Amino acid sequence: MKNIILTFVLLINGILFAQKADSLKLDQIYQKIDSIKYSELDFMKMQKYFTESSEFNNLISKKADQGDKNAIDFLELLNLSYNKANEKHGEKKIKVIIHSYYESVGVQENFNKLNLELDAELDSLKKRKEYFEKTIINERRIIDSLKNK
């Protein structure tokens, strides 16, 4: 019984520590976002990015049609001006959304770069494979011709 109670106490302490650590990370993120100055141009870039993505629009529209409040709010946000969005949702929330947009674009760019590097490596490996296959075929021909003599 003591082991169960001890395990439970340790579990609770672990959960509390994890929540505190997550809270500290969130505070650091909010401090970082508060220090960044976003402009109407940043907001318009974000709007353009999301409105020009047909896959995103199909997905978000479908969710909005199903009554998803977040999807409805986001679609509305994409149709507001920067000043109206700040008035309605608050500057901090708009900063968080713009910051999230830039972070996701950065991740996508890194992924695309890595994908290009992997594609180049794959092409290189395919060319090596073709080279070795041709070399093996030529070597077999030489061996076969020597055997026939």
Q: What can you see in these coordinates?
A:
This protein is an all-alpha fold and 149 residues long. The protein has 2 domains: 35 residues; 111 residues, no CATH class. It is 90% helix and 0% strand. It contains 6 helices and no strands. Helix 3 crosses helix 4 and helix 5 packs across helix 6. It is elongated, with a radius of gyration of 28 Å. 5% of the residues are buried. The mean pLDDT is 80.
Write the layout of secondary structure elements.
Elements: H1 2-35, H2 40-51, H3 54-65, H4 69-78, H5 82-89, H6 91-148
Helix pairs in contact: 3-4, 5-6
Summarize the structure.
The chain is an all-alpha fold and 149 residues long.
Distance separating the two termini: 87 Å
Output the radius of gyration.
Answer: 28 Å
Number of strands: 0
Question: Structural class of the secondary structure composition?
Answer: mainly alpha
Domain count:
2
- Please give the count of helices: 6
- Helices and strands, in order, run as HHHHHH
Largest sheet: none
